[in-house]
Amino acid sequence: MNQFTLTDDLLTGVADIDDQHRKLFMLANQLIEAGTTPRSRLAVLQALAFLGGYIDYHFAAEELAMRDNNYSSYVEHNTFHESFREQVCNLAEAAQTGESTELLILRVAALLTDWLITHIRFMDRDFADYLKRITTKNSIHLPSSSRLKEEGLVPSDYVVPDHPGAAPASKSPSSS
User: Fold this and answer.
1) DSSP strand E in 68-137: where?
2) In this structure, are residues 171 and 160 in contact, taking their beta carbons and an 8 Å threshold?
3) Residue 162 pLDDT level (bands cut at 50, 70, 90)
4) Does residue 128 contact residue 142 with C-beta atoms inside 8 Å?
5) CA proximity to 77, closest of 30, 17, 6, 23
6) CATH label of the domain that carries residue 113
């Protein structure tokens, strides 16, 4: 059973943002599930690295879109992103230093439940509403992975997962 589900109250109405949030939730669920496998330590480390890489990619796309569109709350939103990146990095360090898998999974679940859902419900929806107000195009898109790579915001070899069974990216943006 999935612990994290992108429910209607978390949808922003911007397809790219909602699609990326679905992937974040899918990766979070894979991380939680990894803690229940026989080889859970390695599976958790891999899932946490993959989730961290995708978080970096997602945040880079949102932040570039904010700058491109002169979003007035960029600094505040970016501060929340930086805080979350730091917390995920702290979890990865705890995993590397031998924190118990069970405790690590509990910490990950608490962080994601509290932070990610609250952030989406308020900050991301506010940004999406802003984009919808200022955009006259029929559809709003976040910057492409190609543009993020060109701008140096993600590693040139980062591979964006495109479906639930996607193989982990070759390199996470947080490791660059």
Assistant:
1) none
2) no
3) low
4) no
5) 17
6) 1.20.120.50
